[in-house]
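Let's practice the habit of predicting before peeking. Look at the sequence and jot down your guess about where helices and strands might fall. Then scroll down.
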Amino acid sequence: MKPNKETYRILVIDDHPIVAEGIIALASQLEGVTCKGATCAKDVEQLTLKERFDLCIIDLELPDMNGFQLISHLHSQIPECGILIYTMHEEPWIIAKLSTLNINGAVSKNASTSELRDAISTLKNGTRYFSNVFSELDKEKQNTLPHALPELSRREKEVLAYLSQGLSTSEISQLLFLSINTIQTYRKRLMEKLEAKNVAELVYKISFIISRNLNLIRKMCKPPASQASPSEKEENQLSGYSPSSDCAPSVQNQPCIGSRLQQS
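Done guessing? Here is the structure:
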C-alpha cells in the first residue's frame, strides 16, 4: 500500500456502531483523513461500489459475513486498498489464519486507543503495523517460523492435534486415558521439538504449519501397523494404547482447526 498525499479515505467496518463511531472520531483527528463506517458486509458492498478507499479497518465478527471472507472479497474488489484488522480475538488459530491473508496490519482491541492511532498513521505513511500480540504476522519475521512438522511419535501427534484445537492438559488426559503428568511430558517434548517457549507459542506454530499445508492433517492419522516404527510400538505398549481406527481421535471426533476458524 503506497502513501497517499491526497485525502486518505478510511472505511471502518464494525458491527458495533459505538465502536465504529469511536474509530471514526479517532482517525478523523489525523491530518488529511476522512472516514466512513459500515456495520455489515452489505453496507461495505454498497460503499465500495460508489467510493474509493485507501484503508479498511475490519472487525472479524460481522452479522452477515465471516471477517476472513470479507477480507478476500475486498482484495478482489479493491485490491489497492489496505487492510487493518482491529479485533478482540488473539487466539493462536486466529493469528495462524490471518497469517495466510494479505493484510497490512493488525491491532488488538485490548490495546490503547493511542496504539490504534499510531497504526493508522503508520499505514497512512505506507508502512505495515502489527501490535505485539500480532507481531508474528509480520511477513519479515515469518522466515523464523517452521514450515514442516519435525519427526513426531504417534502419541505426540495426537497430543499436538488436541492442543491445536485449544484443549487443556486435563481434557487431553481424559480423552487419551492417560495421566495428566504423562500429557505434560508429551507437551514438554513437543515444545522442545518445535522450539516453543510456551503452549501458546506451540499452538501458534503448529497452526501456522497446518494453515500452510492442510495435508498435514493426514499426518495426524495412524499409519498401518506394519509401518509403525519400533519406537511407536514400544511407546504404545508402555502407555497401553490400542488403536481402534485409522485416525487419531483428535481428527476423527473433534472439530479441526479449519472448522473452528469457520466458526470464529
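How did you do? The beta strands are 8-13, 33-38, 55-58, 82-87, 105-108, 129-130.
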